[in-house]
Amino acid sequence: xxxxxxxxxxxxxxxxxxxxxxxxxxxxxxxxxxxxxxxxxxxxxxxxxxxxxxxxxxxxxxxxxxxxxxxxxxxxxxxxxxxxxxxxxxxxxxxxxxxxxxxxxxxxxxxxxxxxxxxxxxxxxxxxxxxxxxxxxxxxxxxxxxxxxxxxxxxxxxxxxxxxxxxxxxxxxxxxxxxxxxxxxxxxxxxxxxxxxxxxxxxxxxxxxxxxxxxxxxxxxxxxxxxxxxxxxxxxxxxxxxxxxxxxxxxxxxxxxxxxxxxxxxxxxxxx
Amino acid sequence: xxxxxxxxxxxxxxxxxxxxxxxxxxxxxxxxxxxxxxxxxxxxxxxxxxxxxxxxxxxxxxxxxxxxxxxxxxxxxxxxxxxxxxxxxxxxxxxxxxxxxxxxxxxxxxxxxxxxxxxxxxxxxxxxxxxxxxxxxxxxxxxxxxxxxxxxxxxxxxxxxxxxxxxxxxxxxxxxxxxxxxxxxxxxxxxxxxxxxxxxxxxxxxxxxxxxxxxxxxxxxxxxxxxxxxxxxxxxxxxxxxxxxxxxxxxxxxxxxxxxxxxxxxxxxxxx
Lengths: 272, 272
Hints:
Chain A is of the alpha/beta class. In chain A, 28% of the residues lie in helices and 35% in strands.
């Protein structure tokens, strides 16, 4: 199965893909847009995409793309993110001036960066790609990524486990273009926008509360071109197909639009 | 009045400070942490801090710091963000390889960056600082910031209004260490964490809905060290002091903790 990931071989998205698919044929993509395009044009069967990290919060771009592309979530998985600092062999961190990684990884290492104020952070498209490019002459002196990526690209590991807190997990969704019926009981992910009237969100959440559903996550993103209006994202635990239909039908009474992102088996544990 | 901003002279935070305070004595700070420290040690009377952008969404770090520092919001203002590309005079964008700016500004220019795939984005602490540092020999070839900052630092403006959508506004809060009584009627900003039980968020929002309050924003951030738990941030329009007390008292029935960020005059218009 061809699985698009954002990032390069050795990225945490590759680990997520390995947890979800038996022997995936990884299609590395430079941007999230490229990964969604690979789904659409059929060069990938599945995209495995990060949506949330326990230290950095929502991975915002995928949320926007999931809504605008109308793709379907068919599975989720959690990855424990352990970050290393890599340099070219023989180099030290004290002589480094720049350090590159994916912006979400940089957000997970605020304390490390504060302790090394001489390092300027360079935002790259990927953790693993920042290590590979450093080894191939890119203009930065250090990079942050997985130990696996350091090994793959022959970089020296000069510091390990530099994330701000060890409970550092990223949640990934497996996305495809066609919907699936989903498991008997599973997590339901919805996106919706509401009429701009008082208590609209309370009414929408009442749809879930009336049925004693466990709202495991509620998030929002701005609607571009409509200042101070938002698209909401809700995840509900343990929903069967009938209940999902009922919830969506009732939610539509409060909403301008409702999108079913998917109903899928919830990941177990906390990603460790 | 000494006003701490994150960023340098010419940053959009300076414009926000000018909108809020008559002839502010600006205290430029490298990081949000530094701006909050300036408040705490008395080297600033006020900090003017961005919390939300209509294209990029929540400015996440300040939200975390507002909750952890227990500071008080006393005013808000909206700034229309217009972004320029600056180079050193005589240089062109086609010969540039790297372009620097604040990560939130980079998020507002995704379409521009996609049209210029040869440019690697470099994350800096500030829009204006990225222009100044470029002019003083920093290792990047172009920078994104305000036209004001280009003029202040003698940089050439090679492209204007590069943001993805013209309805690009940033909302700023004025923060101080001591609370103020607030206006007769104003916006109320709260932070709260909830007991992990079904319908907890619906119950909390019921506190607002029962009083026909207009929830202008609901946002959340992860609790570091407690995977998949969140702190919520709510803004409510047109609340007087008595109603604020009543809402907080009732919200405490649902919440592990409730923090009043502040009650202040709502900004008018959309920031244009």
